[in-house]
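(Protein data)
===
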Amino acid sequence: MVTAGCGLGETACPAIGYVPVVVVQLDGWPAASGRSVELVCAGCAERADGGPGTSQVLPVGTEVAFPLPGALPEQVTVRVLADGGVAAEVTTAPEFVRTGGSEQCGGPTSARVVVPAPG
């Protein structure tokens, strides 16, 4: 007899707390140092400076992943920061897709946001 499950029948699901991820991809950007990416959304982790709903700023090459330990946001804003200012900004409704696990039990999810190079 199966005592834990997530659906009908005998499907037993592991008790795993998956954290959704937003992957930011910089498309067509030249190699550069000193660039970082900021993800802003309602429910994102707070920054160290206390800015509400803003995740930390992360250094980036061409791609960076932001884990979102809360509810899935309906909208995110991605800012690419360089030379003391905002080099590019994209606001979008992310489309989260399951990237593992199973249909019966769920699994990890991620959304991809592409930020094209300016100009």
In short: The first strand starts at residue 21 and ends at 27. The chain has one domain: 21-116. Confidence is low (pLDDT under 50) at residues 1-5, 47-52.
